[in-house]
Amino acid sequence: MSTNEETTMSEPGLACCTPLSGTAMSAEQAEQVAPLLKALADPVRLRLVSLIASSASGEACVCDLNDAFDLTQATISHHLKVLHSAGLLDREKRGVWVYYALRPAALSAVANLFGTAVPA
Q: What Rg, from alpha-carbon coordinates, does the chain have?
């Protein structure tokens, strides 16, 4: 999938982001945001997001993330795919490696649920 195709895909969870403490969300809004929360609910995926967010360049290669876990590269790649499919990460293939970066809009959407803002 090319970068342009990824950009034009719908962004799950981003359409709805009313804070939980405000007006009750609709069933449709809950359906949209649930995949973001499900993706983040796994300890490995939460840690992957943290590692990518804290990287100096704002992105990380699977090859760099692998060393932080006692898991196979295939397992790390699976978790990254789940995060990407949920709309939390962008990815770019460079040669044989795939680089991942956080989607600030997705993180802002999640933060907004709890009434906090994430700096852009």
A: 15
